[in-house]
Specification:
Elements (H helix, E strand, L loop, with lengths): L3 H8 L9 H16 L4 H8 L3 H10 L17
Helix pairs in contact: 2-4, 3-4
């Protein structure tokens, strides 16, 4: 069963509808908490029905430190 706040935030997400004021602040807190606990931006976007860019912008606006992209990195040439 989903946490009470999460269900409410997701229930109000309608694609293309503007999220402003207290609702935006509440959503930002929820997304920040979930992102900092390890969820990816893509999974947050999928679960809320919003775009990757929207979630990224909300996290950035709220001052969340975003993780690096990860994956393989190139080492120094020897």
């Amino acid at each position: 069963m989903a946490p009470k706040g999460k269900a409410k935030a997701e229930a109000t997400m309608v694609k293309g509808r503007r999220i402003t004021g207290d609702e935006r602040s509440t959503l930002a807190k929820d997304l920040t908490r979930r992102y900092e606990s390890g969820e990816s931006i893509r999974s947050l976007a999928s679960s809320t029905g919003r775009s990757y860019g929207f979630v990224h912008r909300i996290l950035s606006e709220s001052g969340t430190t975003l993780r690096g992209r990860g994956g393989a990195t190139r080492g120094k040439k020897r």
